[in-house]
């Protein structure tokens, strides 16, 4: 997903602050136990310092430390839980993937790698520390993607129904830059508690309509997933938004405050920061074929890579055909019976590593082995074409919209379940009770 990339450097800086600023001290203490991991007070304090630096660079005011500390603690707990899941799955980010991600991040920020290293140094962060924290963020993201994808089920009828709706519209869509505040209601909240939260939400709306800064209010009060980004979700079409957002946005324009409105998780407030023009739908399809080898308890990553290297050599030497090797070796049953052929598809339907590979690989060339969440692959691009058939474009767009919507909703649900099933304890509270 692209969302993690856009905020990755900020989150990495926050996570790294613990290593950069928090030298071991006698006063350091465990503030939270998360299953078999711990969060130290120095972790919270260091991240707080980095949030202050980021806010100062944007001339952004911040609420009191105790408010930010709660937001930071939530982020640290969620990261620990996802890393624990990743360890169970055996997820590892190797140095090559890590280097590619760092180079891509520098490019997106219009920097060279040396300039990125200089910027990190100006924050007092060593480059090795940055690399390891970025590895942690990528590992957590991959664990989340694996689990959430398993929860998503998109029926052909859903795609057809949405495609019919889209086909009746122009091939353009309005985009919104949206910010969000969520006031959480715990499960089983009493009527009085619901009324109290509803009144608080209305008070926030009144203040916002009188000119209060939305980002400051999000930092101070929001329990939403983007609270530490000032509540900003960035640019989205209505179809890409969580359903509770899309249902509330009708004809409002720049600066509109929407809410408060209720969902199962609490009360919400939206602000439309900007509305942007129209976007044309265009589709490029790629015809690719691949061979997949999955690792197991008896087949390591290195062994899988070597097996594919040998298969690639045999194909390129003319000893065997790609189709023959795919039918005998590939662990993807859907394509193996067709000689590895994936058919004409838009690259967006594939996982990021596979998408990047088929977009950059010259036609007719067989790739070196590379890894995705599914295993190790070699791939060959057999053709590319620009598609102007409306039906194909609309169906692909409908699938992406449904997947994006369900992914956002299922990701939040999974994280809530993960936290609800975890052992989380504050040692100082346990000591007081004893």
Automatic annotation (TrEMBL):
<keyword id="KW-0732">Signal</keyword>
<dbReference type="InterPro" id="IPR015391">
    <property type="entry name" value="SurA_N"/>
</dbReference>
<dbReference type="Pfam" id="PF00639">
    <property type="entry name" value="Rotamase"/>
</dbReference>
<dbReference type="GO" id="GO:0042277">
    <property type="term" value="F:peptide binding"/>
</dbReference>
<keyword id="KW-0574">Periplasm</keyword>
<protein>
    <recommendedName>
        <fullName>Chaperone SurA</fullName>
        <ecNumber>5.2.1.8</ecNumber>
    </recommendedName>
</protein>
<keyword id="KW-0413">Isomerase</keyword>
<dbReference type="GO" id="GO:0043165">
    <property type="term" value="P:Gram-negative-bacterium-type cell outer membrane assembly"/>
</dbReference>
<feature type="domain" description="PpiC">
    <location>
        <begin position="283"/>
        <end position="383"/>
    </location>
</feature>
<dbReference type="InterPro" id="IPR046357">
    <property type="entry name" value="PPIase_dom_sf"/>
</dbReference>
<feature type="signal peptide">
    <location>
        <begin position="1"/>
        <end position="22"/>
    </location>
</feature>
<dbReference type="GO" id="GO:0030288">
    <property type="term" value="C:outer membrane-bounded periplasmic space"/>
</dbReference>
<feature type="domain" description="PpiC">
    <location>
        <begin position="173"/>
        <end position="274"/>
    </location>
</feature>
<dbReference type="GO" id="GO:0050821">
    <property type="term" value="P:protein stabilization"/>
</dbReference>
<comment type="function">
    <text>Chaperone involved in the correct folding and assembly of outer membrane proteins. Recognizes specific patterns of aromatic residues and the orientation of their side chains, which are found more frequently in integral outer membrane proteins. May act in both early periplasmic and late outer membrane-associated steps of protein maturation.</text>
</comment>
<dbReference type="GO" id="GO:0003755">
    <property type="term" value="F:peptidyl-prolyl cis-trans isomerase activity"/>
</dbReference>
<dbReference type="GO" id="GO:0051082">
    <property type="term" value="F:unfolded protein binding"/>
</dbReference>
<dbReference type="InterPro" id="IPR023058">
    <property type="entry name" value="PPIase_PpiC_CS"/>
</dbReference>
<dbReference type="InterPro" id="IPR023034">
    <property type="entry name" value="PPIase_SurA"/>
</dbReference>
<dbReference type="GO" id="GO:0006457">
    <property type="term" value="P:protein folding"/>
</dbReference>
<dbReference type="Pfam" id="PF09312">
    <property type="entry name" value="SurA_N"/>
</dbReference>
<dbReference type="InterPro" id="IPR027304">
    <property type="entry name" value="Trigger_fact/SurA_dom_sf"/>
</dbReference>
<keyword id="KW-0143">Chaperone</keyword>
<dbReference type="InterPro" id="IPR000297">
    <property type="entry name" value="PPIase_PpiC"/>
</dbReference>
<keyword id="KW-0677">Repeat</keyword>
<dbReference type="InterPro" id="IPR050280">
    <property type="entry name" value="OMP_Chaperone_SurA"/>
</dbReference>
<keyword id="KW-0697">Rotamase</keyword>
